[in-house]
């Protein structure tokens, strides 16, 4: 009788801890890691801007999707924001921001990051959480 | 006779060039504006998100100001909260932008100094397919080539027809505090 009671108690505690663990993992799941995700498309900065400026409403938007973009650096703003071909504004991840300092206007680059959306005031596409891709 | 006419033309050209360059310098732009909103309730997890990628453009010849924030650019500490915010509440796939268009009242950019002065801004905030009239006081100052703006205002989810489900209603404040911080650089 006593052994049976202990067994039941153990099973209940075990199930509760599994439930608590699953609940916690769901509630406090880590943020997506854009750097590890595979890009859904590889596109030039100019073509990407064109896609957002004149969207094909029959197709789903690329907002929130991971995209690989290539082009030439127009300039670096506020240290770590890279303007590509005056069409795309790229914010690197915190870990990669120091790399922006070495970029000079005219450099060909490729980056992978998350499309945030289209900024009609500046007529640019914004990308965040980006990483530089070597050997574009 | 001919020589005496020349300076007049030169002066005209100089004035035209001068007015052209002043026209080009009337815009101040921030591409990395900071906006934070918070709707936290005591004892519950903080409901707070921020973006550092808002755009703001101020035209000092008309005192018109426009600002745009991409909703998906707002980051929460909690990824699940960010997901729910985007998918269930603000519906950022359908309404990707928050736009403010307004006017600085009785504002004279030439009288700005390094110490902040109060400026009233009046305009409309567009979000979630709805519009709301908004008036608030900004702290504005000038350093070098840039105009710095700080301000705060309060909105409610009902203002923009955002419904909060009953199950989380007591965890999200009825009033949402919004803070902004722009560093507009002369262009």
- The amount of helix of chain B comes to 10-25%
Name of the CATH architecture of chain B: Beta Barrel
Strand/helix succession of chain A: HEHEEEEE
Query: Biggest β-sheet of chain B, characterized?
Result: 8 strands, antiparallel, barrel
CATH fold annotation of chain B: Lipocalin
N-to-C SSE series of chain B? Answer: HEEEEHEEEEHE
Radius of gyration of chain B, in angstroms, nearest whole number: 22 Å
Give the percentage of residues in beta strands of chain A.
25-35%
Terminal CA distance of chain B: 43 Å
Number of strands of chain A: 6
Number of domains of chain B: 1
Overall geometry of chain A comes to elongated
Please list the strands of the largest sheet of chain A in the order they lie side by side.
2-3-4-6-5
- Report the uncertain regions of chain A: none
Distance between the amino and carboxyl termini of chain A: 71 Å
Q: Identify the CATH architecture of the largest domain in chain A.
A: Beta Barrel
When the domains of chain A are counted, the total is 2
3D architecture notes:
The complex is a heterodimer of chains A (about 140) and B (about 190). Chain A has about 140 residues and is of the alpha/beta class. Helix content of chain A is about 25%, strand content about 35%. Chain A folds into two domains: about 1-30; about 35-135, Beta Barrel (OB fold (Dihydrolipoamide Acetyltransferase, E2P)), CATH 2.40.50.140. Chain A has a five-stranded mixed barrel. By secondary structure, chain B is an alpha+beta fold. Chain B is built from three helices and nine strands; from the N terminus they run αββββαββββαβ. Chain B has helices spanning about 1-25, 80-90, 165-170; strands spanning about 25-40, 50-60, 65-70, 75, 95-105, 115-125, 130-145, 145-155, 170-185. The model of chain B has no long low-confidence stretch (mean pLDDT about 90). The interface of A and B includes residues 63, 77 and 78 of A.
């Amino acid at each position: 009788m006593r052994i049976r009671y202990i067994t039941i108690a153990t099973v209940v505690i075990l199930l509760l801890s599994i439930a608590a663990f699953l609940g916690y993992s769901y509630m406090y799941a880590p943020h997506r890691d854009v750097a590890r995700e595979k890009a859904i498309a590889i596109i030039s900065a100019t073509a990407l801007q064109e896609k957002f400026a004149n969207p094909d409403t029959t197709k789903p938007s690329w907002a929130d999707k991971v995209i690989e973009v290539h082009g030439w650096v127009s300039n670096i703003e506020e240290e770590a924001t890279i303007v590509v071909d005056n069409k795309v504004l790229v914010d690197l991840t915190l870990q990669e921001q120091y790399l922006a300092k070495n970029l000079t206007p005219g450099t060909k680059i490729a980056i992978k990051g998350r499309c945030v959306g289209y900024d009609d005031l500046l007529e640019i596409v914004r990308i965040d959480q980006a990483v530089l891709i070597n050997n574009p | 006779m001919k020589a005496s006419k020349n300076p007049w033309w030169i002066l005209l050209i100089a004035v035209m060039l001068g007015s052209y360059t002043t026209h080009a310098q009337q815009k101040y732009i921030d591409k990395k504006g900071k906006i934070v909103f918070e709707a936290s309730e005591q004892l519950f997890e903080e409901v707070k998100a921020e973006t550092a990628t808002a755009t703001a453009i101020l035209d000092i010849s008309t005192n018109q100001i426009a600002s745009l924030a991409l909703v998906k650019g707002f980051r929460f500490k909690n990824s699940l909260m960010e997901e729910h915010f985007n998918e269930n509440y603000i519906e950022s796939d359908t309404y990707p932008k928050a736009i403010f268009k307004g006017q600085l009242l009785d504002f004279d950019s030439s009288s700005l100094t390094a110490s902040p002065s109060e400026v009233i801004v009046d305009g409309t905030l567009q979000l979630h397919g709805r519009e709301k009239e908004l008036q608030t006081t900004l702290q504005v100052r000038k350093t070098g080539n840039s105009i710095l703006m700080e301000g705060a205002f309060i909105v409610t989810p009902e203002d923009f027809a955002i419904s909060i489900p009953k199950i989380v209603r007591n965890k999200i404040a009825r009033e949402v505090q919004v803070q902004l911080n722009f560093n507009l650089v002369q262009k």
